Amino acid sequence: MMSRRLSRLAAAALALPLIAAGGHAIAEEADAPAPGAAGIGDPYWPLDGNGGIDVSSYRIANTYDLRRMALRGRTSLTLRATADLTSFNLDFLLRVSKVRVDGAPADFDQTRHELTITPAVALAAGTSHTVKVTYAGRPNSKRYAGEENWLADRREVVTMNEPHMAPWWFPANDHPSDKATFDVQTTVAKGREVIGNGKLVGKKERKRTTTWRWRAAEPMAPYLAFFAAGDFTIRQGRNNGLPWINAVSQRLPASAHDAALRLMRKTPRVTRRLSRDLGPYPFSVTGGLTTGLPVYFALENQTRPTYPAVGPNAVSLVVHEIAHQWFGDDVAVARWRDIWLNEGAATFMEWRYAEQYGGQSAARTLQSVYDSIGAGADFWKLRIADPGADDIFDHAVYDRGGMTLQALRNRIGDEKFWLLIRTWLETKAGGNATSEEFEALAAQVSGQDLTSFFTAWLRTPTKPAKTADNGLA
After folding, report:
1. What's the pLDDT tens digit per position in 421-470?
2. Residue 349: closest CA among 439, 421, 453
3. Which of 59, 85, 166, 450 would give a disulfide with 123, using CB separation of 3.0 to 4.6 Å?
4. Rounded Cα gap, residues 25 and 453, in angstroms
């Protein structure tokens, strides 16, 4: 994410043993099934995600009425029980009318953003199941965690936000540590366009409606799934064999619309250039979407970041969001506290891109930022390895994260730094990671004790000393 404002911690409850008169435990054959936890265990948002389940795929079929800003539909999830469950939860805000588990009706209850599902038969650990949820409502009327995230008016909608977006439009195990594939079909009034993640695999026109079907073949975190509906100009092609699909809102004034098309058209080139440092692009398609809604941030939706209208020269913004395809999308955070791994790396890659294509060196950018901010500034007071839920998008997470990586580059040298980055992305590809894992790999690859370096940059609420050990001299 640009310019604004979790390892799964499953806890299965063990049944208490029966106690005989002599005080000896009478062994039971197996632990009794129990309800799944209401949250996955991330301390920043304890009710995000859900214990006892692992979702492998979402198949979403929604109808969205732009004029009424109303959504109805059905989501089919394929999931595996990771514990013996009498019930389990999904994160969802709209009113549910029906739930079926493996084809059989299931009881359900909704409290705030928790959808608790009780199947007719308990789920055994290790077994796979299909869950179908039918629902309807007005997403723009819903709030969760103090957020009103539905971005829409009667002409356009785009589901872009972080850390929460999924529960406004489909039931999800809403945490980055549970990635899944997505197949999303959205029905709108005939003549309107729908854009989503991945590739367009179907478009069916009827008398009054059109259904657009987008499929994301590579697993992704639920908050990265999106759709946009409205009037869009769509362009597509190939660059060095990689397909790209761009879209720009037609509600923008002509000059802004054309400028946005020119900016989006730079995406394939940016993707190719970043791959020279980071290794093969991790997905099967790239692209971007510019909305006409008054939003003031961009978001790294997997395969197709979303942007506000910013003009044709905001290449650094495209670099940031495309860099996220590696840092944040392919290698996702294990906990929200690890967000500097995403935002710091994307910021650093902006500096690196400028260094390679006509701007000042990343080392000079680090020095400039360091020198320009006094030791007493709030910028240095945030512990960016654990910034707290209210500050995960503080500008210090972005800039100090980028500074940390360039300072590390200074400290261990170019050869070992880029070996570290490539090794990190290769070994963690498709998964989740923590700051501590990155720090350990950095020490291993460099052959240096980097404890004091990372303490100074990530965990100390003061300006790092200008020393060689801190990569500053």
Report:
1. 999 999 999 999 999 999 999 999 999 999 999 999 999 999 999 999 99
2. 421
3. 85
4. 51
- 119 domain residue, yes or no: no
Supply the range of the domain harboring residue 453.
Answer: 333-459
CA distance 373 to 357: 26
Residue bearing tokens 């911690």: 9
Token pair of 380, please?
């240095």
Q: What is the pLDDT of residues 212-269, one digit of tens each?
A: 999 999 999 999 999 999 999 999 999 999 999 999 999 999 999 999 999 999 999 9
DSSP 389-443: GGGTT-HHHHHHHHHHHHHHHHHH-HHHHHHHHHHHHHHTTTSEE-HHHHHHHHH
Q: What's the residue count for the chain?
A: 473
User: What is the pLDDT, as a whole number, of residue 473?
Assistant: 84
Identify whether 243 is preceded by a cis peptide bond (ω within 30 of 0): no
Distance CA 167, CA 171 (A): 6
Bond preceding residue 167 cis, omega within 30 of 0:
no
Tokens of 68: 């009424």
Q: At which residue do the structure tokens 């002409």 appear?
A: 155
- State the Cα–Cα distance between residues 29 and 11, nearest whole angstrom: 20
Which three-class secondary structure state does DSSP give residue 226?
A: coil
Separation between Cα atoms, residue 50 and residue 40, nearest integer Å: 4
Quick check: 145 and 219 in contact, CB under 8 A?
Answer: no
What total of structural domains would you count in the chain?
1
The share of the chain scoring above pLDDT 90, in percent, equals 92
User: How far is Cα 426 from Cα 23, in angstroms, rounded to an integer?
Assistant: 54
451 part of a folded domain: yes
Q: How far apart are the first and last CA of the chain?
A: 31
Residue type, 237: G
The CATH number covering residue 381 comes to: 1.10.390.10
Q: What gap in Å lies between CA 89 and CA 40, rounded to an integer?
A: 10
Q: Look at strands 95-101 and 104-105 and give their pairing.
A: antiparallel
- Give 188's Cβ-side CA count (13 Å radius): 23
DSSP 125-179: TT-EEEEEEEEEE-GGG--BTTB---EE-SS-EE---SS--GGGTS-B--STTS-
For residue 222, the 8-state DSSP code is: G
Structural domain includes residue 364: yes
Q: pLDDT, tens digit, for every residue of 18-49? A: 323 333 333 334 579 999 999 999 999 999 99
- 197 in any annotated domain: no
How far is the C-alpha of 52 from the C-alpha of 35, rounded, in Å? 8
